[in-house]
Amino acid sequence: MNVKYFIIFLFGVHDGDTKSIQNVTEITIEALQNRLEKMESSLRVLDSTIKNISTSKRDDEVMFFAIIKSNSFNLERESTVVFDTIVLNEGNHYNNYDGVFVAPRDGIYLFSWTVSSYNANYVMTELVVGDEVITSTGEKDADSVSFMSASMTAICRMKKDSHAWIRTTGYGSLHYFYSNDNHPRTSFLGLLIRAE
């Protein structure tokens, strides 16, 4: 149905007289055209507002999940662990070349990571935000022929442009990481819980 005819129908036609909702006895075509133009203008503004809200909502999404897919290696004490295979990186705030997440805004963030080792080796890691160690996890009491994993979840406040990463602790000398291509066992995730 043509919009002009729909508006005329909306206002009602009775016995040849045109009446509006406001009880005006006659509406001209020009008045209807003006109303139609105003409605179309309002719809354009509404459509633009909805698009802006959708875009800003996508810009607010901050989350990443990265793994070490098929690599076993040793790291020295206080070395950054680089989770090189990105599974998800909404907002592109995690760098899989240096292993560092950069906060895009002030807020409360959640981080979780899992590290694995094998065959009587140990691995001890910690979450560092700025220059502060938030918490740590790892495995140091291993059997000689078993796989071990340790996980940790932490929530912390970050300022815009501050950095977060996983590194080995100061414990021991070499930390051994095990991650298998078919069963990735070493991973790191983070997300913005609440912007401030």
Question: Any overview of this molecule?
Answer:
- The protein is α+β, with helices and mostly antiparallel strands and 196 residues long.
- It folds into 2 domains: 3-59; 61-195, Jelly Rolls (Sandwich), CATH 2.60.120.40.
- 21% of the residues lie in helices and 43% in strands.
- The strands form 4 sheets. The protein has a 5-stranded antiparallel β-sheet with strand order 5-3-14-8-11, with no helix packed on it.
- Strand 9 (123-129) and strand 10 form a beta hairpin.
- The two termini are 48 Å apart.
- Residues 1-16 have low confidence and may be disordered.
Topology, element by element:
Elements: H1 3-11, E1 13-14, E2 17-18, H2 29-60, E3 63-68, E4 73-76, E5 85-90, E6 94-95, E7 100-102, E8 107-118, E9 123-129, E10 132-139, E11 147-158, E12 163-168, E13 174-177, E14 186-195
Antiparallel strand pairs: 1-2, 3-5, 3-14, 4-13, 6-7, 7-12, 8-11, 8-14, 9-10, 9-12
Structure, briefly:
With 196 residues, this protein is an alpha+beta fold.
CATH architect. name of the largest domain? Sandwich
Structural class assignment: alpha+beta
Strand content: 35-45%
- How many discrete structural domains? 2
The level of helicity is: 10-25%
Taking the sheet with the most strands, its summary is:
5 strands, antiparallel
In terms of per-residue confidence, which ranges show pLDDT below 50 for 5 or more consecutive residues?
1-16
CATH topology of the largest domain: Jelly Rolls
Termini separation comes to: 48 Å
Number of helices: 2
Identify the overall geometry: elongated
- Report the radius of gyration as a whole number of Å: 30 Å
Mean pLDDT figure: 82
Strand order of the largest sheet: 5-3-14-8-11
Coiled coil: 22-49
Protein name: C1q domain-containing protein
InterPro entries: C1q_dom (IPR001073), Cerebellin_Synaptic_Org (IPR050822), Tumour_necrosis_fac-like_dom (IPR008983)
GO cellular component, one term: extracellular region
